[in-house]
Amino acid sequence: MANINTYHLMATGSVILTSALGLSACAGEGESVGPPRTTTVLNLPPTPTSQVLNSDLQKALDPTVPNEGKFDLLQGVQADPELPGRLAHAFRQNNATITVTSVADLGYGTITAQAQASLNNGESQQVVVPFVAEGGKWKIQLEWVCGALSSFAVQDSPACL
Question: CA-CA distance, 89 to 108, in Å (whole number)?
């Protein structure tokens, strides 16, 4: 019985050793073997105050601000440069208002804005608007923008496909 266990351990050890040598043989000079050792340092913009986020959100929803002035406020404008105008038009058409009341940093480049929103001067409701860090700025998350457009029955945006 001892001989079988010894043989099994030797065979297993031989496979492990061969595998390790085989992997190190694949690595080039100065390269390490095994899982890469990475330390990701997220270079995130500072978490904005609710006043700053509210100002950005109001600018994004203002139909008098040209689309180009809103590119840093929304995700998805590369796929649809008209996206900011679509969103502003949808809010205006539905007499929708939204005001950021607080901000929560969720980490990993995501923050949420708690906000009060109303349609057609109706009762305010609590909503959450997610923002993501992109290009050193906080932008309204594309999924939220697409959801808002969909709920207002606005023509689909190429960014939302």
Answer: 31
Instruction: Output the pLDDT for position 156.
Output: 81
- Report the candidate in 113, 134, 115, 112 with the shortest Cα–Cα distance to residue 124: 115
Q: Is the pTM of this model over 0.85?
A: no
Number of H helices, E strands in the chain: 4, 4
Cα atoms in the 13 Å half-sphere on the side-chain side of 9: 6
Q: Supply the DSSP symbol for 72.
A: T
| Nearest-10 Cα torsion for 8, 12, 14, 16 | -170
Nearest to 65, CA basis, from 53, 57, 75: 57
pLDDT digits (tens, 9 = 90+) for 78-111: 999 999 999 999 999 999 999 999 999 999 999 9
